[in-house]
Amino acid sequence: MAERRIVGVDLGIASAHTVVVLTGEGTEVCRRRCIPTAESLGWIEQQALDGAPEGTVLEVVLEPTGPAWLAPTVFFGRRGHAVYRVSSQKASDLRKFLSRHAKSNSIDALTLARLAIVAPQSLRPVELPGAGRATLDRRVRACDRLTKEASQHKIRIKDLVRQLLPMTPLTGELGQADLAVLERWADPNALLRAGRARLTAVIAKASNNHQGAERAEEWLAAARASVELYEGDSAVAFSDLAAEVATEVRILRAIQAELASHAEVREAAYRRVDSEGLARSLPGVAEVGGPVVVSVMGRPGRFARAEQFKSFTGLVPRASETGESDRKGQPMSKAGSSMLRSQLMRSADTARTSDPELARIYYVQMVERGATHTKALCVVAAHLAERAWAVMARGTPYVIRDTDGRPVAKAEAKAIIAEHWTVPEDVRRRRRNKKVRKVPHQVLVGHVSRARGAVPRRPSPLASSALGATASTTQGGGA
Question: Are residues 293 and 406 both part of a single domain?
Fold first, then answer.
């Protein structure tokens, strides 16, 4: 039987990697340091296999430390060794157990190596994607990051405009016509000097004639209200705020251009990986959601069951059992990719309006179990994750069904949801109300007062009614 050789690698970002090699019994073989080059990593391989039988496969264990994990993973994986990536939380917990009062690179590397012995179930094999999946993964990540950055700049633009125009017309989505106006005339005085005709022409051109004179009048009204309110007060630097708005608009335009470029390549990569569009057949998983699901899931076969993929998404509640008790309603584990989890939540909000089975799950959570909208969506998203794995693993498109399992068309599905699984508005209002009526405390009148020598006070009518209700319930009079 081949001997086990376990290699724990504490990755350094701006420094060398620290390596500890153990046998399967936990005996230390060597401690070394290396850098991410083929020569240095090859030397580590020789040191780790020194004295081991021919054909021994190394078990390399590392944490996902920034981008530093990629180089050793590719090197050892290409040479036929097994590479495992573990969560930083598990490694931290074991390190505290092994060495509570000391922390060093060698201790971290030793901890990673010992994880393969004391908790082999926590190791997750790293599967490097092929060319198509690698391209899809990078483009999905780039689009997600650029989308978040664009959202931040939009919020910043609205905040700045609210200073310039307290009665801001930016009450909805920030459109191209709004950006065209702000890039030129964010200063209220400049807006008024531009005039209605010029403003209307710019808005019409930027919006492809979807907006015009009415939108121009909204901008002018906000500018007049701002000038009247501030009356030229030097505390409000109109020109400087306008310059900052123009800068934010130019940055936003650049991000949107880069996002469109990455999205085009992402779409091409997705069509190569999921040529039948299976992920997009899922309810609520559209143009953006399909690539995200396929990219993060990777090869469906690496999850044995749908429950494993659901656990991977972090949408499952934490477990808390002790003795005869099993605490329900625990918070989500939030393990895995936050990008996938956020996408499944957004998709679930749409899926519950088009799939009767998912709509029923949402309805039961809201109406019968007292869940809030967000909590109910988490449950729907967890079910949607299981269905996503089933669709990709089986290679068959998703079929919308009624709650009795009968396939239905989209129009019929919406009619079923409207008739049977629509949450009443009064239930939504109650779930949104976070104010809890406080029950008055029971007051034991006279006992404490007499012990302190004070004069007992008569109970208030509220306390009397509370005590009377309690007494009647205790005697069996209450239901």
Answer: yes
